[in-house]
Specification:
The chain is an all-alpha fold. 93% of the residues lie in helices and 0% in strands. Helix 1 packs antiparallel against helix 2. The two termini are 17 Å apart.
Length: 136
């Protein structure tokens, strides 16, 4: 009976260690995914900011050039800004739900892919058969 009690205590300790390790691994995987998404978002935000700054300077130069060609500086700015105003108004008035749905679907697909990748990592954990052999 004493050996059975020791065996049960050892199995319960190993089970507790396994559960704690599994929880720690899950926390590490989740934190890894979160830091990946934050890093990716910061990198994309920085890229878009640089692109936007270049676009503003390019459009300003184009507006000045068109203004000099036409003879009125304000006309150059009006010509360059009019497509942006029209597209902005169209997006405000129409409120394209398909664009929002596509963005949501893309984010969801990326998130599910990251969880599937984590699932593959979890499958690489040592199997419980090795633990059973160590107990015996």
């Amino acid at each position: 009976m004493d050996d059975l009690g020791k065996c049960i205590k050892q199995v319960s300790r190993e089970l507790q260690d396994y559960i704690e390790t599994k929880i720690e691994l899950t926390v590490l995987n989740v934190s890894d995914r979160i830091t990946y998404w934050i890093g990716k978002s910061v990198q994309q935000l920085f890229g878009y900011a640089i692109f936007g700054l270049g676009l503003v300077f390019g459009l300003t130069a184009l507006a000045i050039y068109i203004g000099e060609v036409i003879g009125d500086e304000w006309a150059g700015y009006a010509i360059v800004s009019s497509p942006f105003i029209l597209v902005g108004l169209i997006l405000i008035v129409i409120k394209p739900k398909s664009m929002v749905r596509r963005i949501q679907d893309q984010i969801l697909a990326d998130l599910l892919n990251s969880f599937e990748e984590n699932g593959d990592e979890l499958k690489e954990l040592p199997s419980t058969e090795n633990s059973k052999k160590e107990v015996n």
